[in-house]
Amino acid sequence: MAVEWDRVGQPGFDRIVEALVHRVYDATARVEAVNGRGGDDGVDIKVTHGSRVRIFQLKYYPDGFPTTAHKGRRKSIRQSFARALQHQPWEWILVVPCTLTTAEREFVTSLAAGQTVRVEVWDRAKLDGLLATHADLEASFTRDQLFEAAKVYGQERALLMGGVPDVSARVTALGRQADGLDDHWTVDFARQGKTVVHTLRAKHPRAHEVSPVEITLTGSGPLAPDLARAVRRSLGFGLPEEVVLPRGAVESLTVSGPEWLSGEHRDVEVRWQPADKVPLAETAVEVAFMEGEHVTACYPGTLAHVGRGSVGRSVRVDLAGGSLELTIPASSGASASLRFTFSLKRLEPAAGLRLLRIYQRIAAGGAFEVRARAGVIGGGELPPHPEAARQEAAQLRSYIEDLEAVQRHCEQYFPIPDELTPTDRIALRMARLLIQGHCVASPFMTRARFTLNGQDSPTLRSLLSGEPHAVRGSSAAFALTLSGRHLELGPVHFYHPHVTVDEKDGRRALAALEAGRGEGCAVTVRPVGGECFRHLLHDAAPGSGWTPVPLELPGFTEPR
Fold this sequence. Notes:
This protein is of the alpha+beta class. Helix content is 32%, strand content 31%. It has helices at residues 5-25, 71-85, 102-110, 124-133, 135-141, 143-153, 164-179, 207-210, 225-237, 349-364, 387-410, 422-435, 458-464, 503-514, and strands spanning 30-33, 45-49, 52-58, 91-95, 118-122, 185-192, 195-202, 214-219, 243-245, 250-256, 263-265, 270-272, 284-291, 294-308, 312-319, 322-329, 337-342, 366-372, 375-382, 440-441, 448-451, 469-482, 485-501, 522-527, 534-537. The chain has a seven-stranded antiparallel β-sheet with strand order 17-16-15-14-13-18-19. Strands 20, 21, 22, 23, 24 and 25 form a six-stranded antiparallel β-sheet that branches. A five-stranded mixed β-sheet has the order 1-2-3-4-5, with helices on both faces. Helix 10 (349-364) packs antiparallel against helix 11 (387-410) and helix 11 (387-410) crosses helix 12 (422-435). The relative contact order is 0.05.
């Protein structure tokens, strides 16, 4: 049954639209339904995907907003749109439970005139289409209509119109039937989408002795390498990971035991999952890196798992933003292995630097241990990573160190940006060096333009005549923009010992000085030899004068 939009009312309309927006965008964005419809904020539902914001405005106008009637409705829509613009949305969507006329649609799209925001409409046809795609939502919102029909046929309980209590009563009754199948075993069951999962459960501690159940799995040819490694990790080392054997890898699954349970099954997918987690006696640990008996670095973590399998045992330690997994073979002489995974997403530079330092310790190779108060849980000797991998980590660490220094100086803290342009990278390194009091050559400043004040001098005339001279000036601020943030370091001086004036500007300025009209004349100067102006923060005291320090960015040419 379709939703009867002219009967659901404003609260029902809001609930349906909120559910649809969540279903459409939850997987890729953050969805927020805002309380206080019609308030000053102009936002009913906000969908945030990275830097893009969509704003949904819900208007329960079942009969539209024509100009011949309901004249206040168009004004209300226009006011809601104006308030929404304060949030700088990428897209604004009007949601109404009616089919728009051509004039009504043109009115809505005209709101975008002169604006950068996109404007869309979800009308009745769009809403019906979305509900058809998400049929479970439509069913949940048309239950009242179905209940009216069910009462006519006396089928209230058949439709579970009692809600959750009806569901619980039926599942409990079915469970009692399953419990009567055997004296020693029973089957618990659960529905997951279109799949019914059966879980065999013993009725008493000796069920496996009195009425044993065996499961035999016959494979179909060798496993794919990735799947073979997953089986080894799970069964061999006891790592808590789900393993899925697809139908093509399983020839048959045979269950032997009570008659009602026994049988051979083909064309099956087999999954095994870790058993319920047993609480660990101690969870506070530390990961120590050593040279001989000397500890060179130590990082705290949380012991998340200790397991054992047919090949050896496993240890997993959780760190802020990362996870360290250790597999230790039982056979003597076999090497332990370590896998460290981490993500810098949504981390501030300080937290990201800690993870990178751990990675660099692992990449360098050498001895390590995972320690708890009771003693060493595991450890080993790590081989060094390839030089290319270590260089890549060093470059990433250098970038984050630059970012951390600039954030600390500007007192603006935010997560590490996912992307960085080459221009941003150069500006970030320049900013860090300036903060540290260094002089840097700026590839972004290869010329400067000055306006004469009318005063004359031999030095000025010499410069305007083409002779190289030193020039020093000031700029209000050195600033860069990262991740939508404006980071301002403060006033800077710029300088170069040898600049020349553009020839055309020089002749024009000299003529103006001769005529007594030099004031206001603009000239462009450039460092000789294609060099760049040098920068220094206003409050810095350069230890090496105006000699620039190198940027030392791999892949970038050093500015001169």
